[in-house]
């Protein structure tokens, strides 16, 4: 597994998001999906361990992420922002038990609030 090239497990159906004559074109749907997957970047997420999850989450362990219709495997790096007005993040080996933290993953570019 290479975090720079996540395993894409989802896809779009033919006609999903299209209208008219483009609804029946497999090639156009595939080309849109492929062009979106080429636009990769680092994504910073705010996460918290779910109460039903036993144990803690560890940095660099593979997890599945779902962003919109995309589902893929990523290896997150957990961090917390330092206090005191300095724009830097502190690496976390494990997620805090009851607090939110940030996770940085290599994923397709997404719009805020998507």
What does it look like?
It is a single chain. This protein is mainly beta. It has a single domain, classed as Elongation Factor Tu (Ef-tu), domain 3 (Beta Barrel). Helix content is 11%, strand content 31%. It has one helix and six strands. The strands form two sheets. A four-stranded antiparallel sheet has the order 1-6-4-5. It is globular and about 35 Å long. It starts with 25 loop residues before the first helix and ends in a 6-residue tail after the last strand. The model is unreliable at 22-32 (pLDDT under 50). GO terms for molecular function: GTP binding; GTPase activity; U3 snoRNA binding. This is Ribosome biogenesis protein BMS1/TSR1 C-terminal domain-containing protein. Residues 30-110 form the Ribosome biogenesis protein BMS1/TSR1 C-terminal domain. One of its GO terms (biological process) is endonucleolytic cleavage of tricistronic rRNA transcript (SSU-rRNA, 5.8S rRNA, LSU-rRNA). InterPro entries: Bms1/Tsr1, BMS1_TSR1_C.
Q: What are the salient characteristics of this protein?
A:
single chain, 31% strand, 4-stranded antiparallel sheet, 114 residues, 6 strands, Elongation Factor Tu (Ef-tu), domain 3, two-stranded antiparallel sheet, 1 helix, globular, mainly beta
CATH class term = Mainly Beta
* Fraction of residues in H or I helices: 10-25%
Quaternary status of these chains? single chain
Shape: globular
The DSSP helix count reads 1
What is the straight-line distance between the termini? 26 Å
Strand content is 25-35%
Integer count of domains: 1
Please identify, by name, the CATH architecture: Beta Barrel
Q: Tell how many strands the DSSP assignment holds.
A: 6
Query: Would you give the CATH topology?
Result: Elongation Factor Tu (Ef-tu), domain 3
- Side by side, the strands of the main sheet go 1-6-4-5
Q: H/E element string?
A: HEEEEEE
Domain Ribosome biogenesis protein BMS1/TSR1 C-terminal: 30-110
GO cellular component, one term: 90S preribosome
GO molecular function: GTP binding; GTPase activity; U3 snoRNA binding
InterPro entries: Bms1/Tsr1, BMS1_TSR1_C
């Amino acid at each position: 597994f290479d975090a720079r090239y996540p395993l894409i497990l989802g896809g779009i159906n033919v006609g999903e998001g299209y209208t008219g004559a483009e609804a029946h074109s497999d090639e156009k749907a595939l080309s849109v999906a492929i062009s979106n997957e080429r636009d990769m970047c680092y994504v910073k997420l705010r996460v918290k361990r779910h109460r039903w999850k036993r144990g803690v989450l560890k940095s660099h362990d593979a997890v599945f992420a779902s962003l919109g219709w995309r589902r893929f495997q990523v290896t997150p790096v957990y961090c917390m922002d330092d206090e005191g007005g300095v724009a830097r993040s502190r690496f976390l080996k494990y997620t805090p038990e009851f607090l939110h933290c940030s996770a940085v993953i290599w994923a397709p570019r997404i719009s805020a609030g998507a």
